[in-house]
Amino acid sequence: MSLKPKKVNFNEIWSDLRNTAEAVIKLDKVEKNVWNSSFSNVYNLCVAHPEPFADLLYEETKQFLKQHVETMLHTRVNPPGMNSNDGEQPDLLKRYYDAWSEYSLDEERVRIISGVMHSFVEVQAYNKTGSLKIYQWLFECPLLLASGEYYATEATALLQRCTVSEYMEKVIKILDDENRRAQKFLHSSSIPKLLKQCEEKFINERLDFLYSECKQMVAQENRKDLRNMYIILKPIPDHLKIMLIQTFLDHIKNEGLETISTLKGESIHIQFVEDMLKVHKKYTQLIAEVFESDPLFLSALDKACASVINRRPSDKQPCRSAEYVAKYCDTLLKKSKTSESEIDQKLTNNITIFKYIEDKDVYQKFYSRLLAKRLIHEQSQSMDAEEAMINRLKQACGYEFTNKLHRMFTDISLSADLNNKFNNYLKQENIDLGINLSIKVLQAGAWPLGPTQTVITFAVPQEFEKAIRMFETFYHNSFSGRKLTWLHHMCHGELKLGYLKKTYIVTMQTYQMAMLLLFELSDSMTCKDIQTTLQLNTETFQKHMQSLLESKLLTASSENLEDNTKIELNLDYSNKRTKFKITSALQKETPQEVEHTINAVDEDRKLYLQAAIVRIMKLRKVLKHNALIQEILSQTNVSFTPSITIIKKCIESLIDKQYIERTPNSGDEYSYVA
């Protein structure tokens, strides 16, 4: 700001100063920059060049104040109609008193109300009998009573003219307004009491009205109304659970059941997992956006998903969710064109569904069997992905759950080292096997090789005999006391076909290779000759011969494979691909394999339960029936939830085996037999 006198326009500056003065005298808001510029304007007028305007400014200010007082006089002290009937004005002093009283009350109303209430509180500083007694007796109780009556009247009026949606919006606003006013005027101890009165009259006593459209809101997933319903019911957890949460849970369950009820086809396991993930993702997002990720609603989502995933089609049919989830993992982990990052993401998502499975032991059986096939037939996309998945399962279920899976990986790693040592041994001994050989030595207790684990009789072709004999010699020299059992049904190899127009390299199962090798010396043989030479049982022979016939490498004289059916080499065979694979019949899962897996789980459960009962009774010595049942359930809930029936059968079995006995004179108590 310059202090040097300058030429100014009085009327322009006075107009701004008058507006500022008017705002000040009326107690209106004046911006800081306007306030500061007013001082500059007054100075500029008083030192103006060539002639200062100080006297004129004084006169204009005087006239402005006089005009303001006259206006106050006419509006407050002597308004129109105040003259008495006899023409005389009322007493002047009385009019001044009335004007002052009105002004004081209007200006100080808020301060007085707040001050009076807090004075009740301050009185208690001198009252030794109890805190806030006078305040509560003289003010709080009447306030709550009157407020309750007012709220009830307002709620009734709203019900008559509002829909449920409109009612909730208005109640939320009322609650917010009441809370704001209470914070401003009341002592802190009164605020929750007043809000409770408000909730009681507007919500608790109107629940039937709110319930009337709750199901419709959930069914339509009306986010705005559901959000308002949540805000209203959140302070009352019991009503939130009874009405909104249970309805929400049932809605998710119904959608989940509807989603999976129509699934069918060979890719049912993929549809099952991905459709359930969509349902889970959809309602997780809805809970986050509408219900603030409330744990009660997340728990409802978990219960709904668990109910859908573990649902049995009927009492006689098992729940197949564990099987589907295991097969979904198998699909992802097998060799494919899918990127590793996408596989990793899908496997992570898969764990979301896995955690809801109650029969985790069923999942473990299917997963380990499918993993065994991937490792034996070298079908894994990557070993890193396999290990990452096992680590996820370990985090979810513990080390015991994945112990055998880790041992399977160890066997594959040790087998690779063993093959290197065997090849070095052959070089040192200058031995030529005539074939390339890769061996996998598997621990019998770790690998779930299914019903085919029973050794099938098989006359090994002479082309393989030397290789087998040399490896056995090497292995027994390296490891004494170990027994090797050859699982030819799990083996495969590459066979070079040189009798056709083009040379083909075909990957096939051992039995199929043995069958084709018989045609080195003859172009045709009967089924009986082939089966007798290889010493295969009828089922195994027909299964693998059928695969060769379907591949068109061999032809048969009749559709049904009888003893005298003639099998011939197809000398006219051609294929665009010079390197291909004949899918082994054993790699295709059969209903018998699935049934065997389920039966194996049932047997494992019985042994697991019996072991758990013995451990519990050995520790407790004596235990009531119901207490024993509860301890068994708590120990088994990680892997599966046994039925009471199977627990009772296991108890009876242990009594028969004399591990435990019924306590004399007590029918529902057991004691441990040392």
CATH fold annotation of one domain = Ribosomal Protein S5, domain 2
* CATH level 4 superfamily of one domain: Cullin, Chain C, Domain 2
Distance between the termini: 105 Å
**What is the CATH level 1 assignment of one domain?**
Alpha Beta
CATH architecture classification name of one domain = 2-Layer Sandwich
How would a textbook summarize the main sheet? 3 strands, mixed
Mean pLDDT: 86
Give the % helix.
55-70%
Structural class per helix/strand content?
mainly alpha
List the uncertain runs: none
Strand content: 5-15%
How many individual helices?
Answer: 25
The number of distinct β-strands equals 9
Kindly provide the radius of gyration, computed on alpha-carbon positions and rounded to a whole number of angstroms. Answer: 45 Å
Overall, the morphology is elongated
Please specify the SSE layout and strand pairing.
Blueprint: H1 10-25, H2 32-46, H3 54-77, H4 92-123, H5 133-161, H6 164-185, H7 191-202, H8 207-211, H9 214-220, H10 223-233, H11 237-261, H12 268-290, H13 295-309, H14 321-333, H15 340-354, H16 360-376, H17 383-397, H18 399-429, H19 462-478, E1 492-497, E2 504-509, H20 510-517, E3 524-526, H21 527-534, H22 538-550, E4 554-556, E5 566-569, E6 579-581, H23 591-620, E7 622-624, H24 625-636, H25 644-656, E8 660-662, E9 669-672
Parallel strand pairs: 2-6
Antiparallel strand pairs: 1-2, 3-5, 4-5, 7-9, 8-9
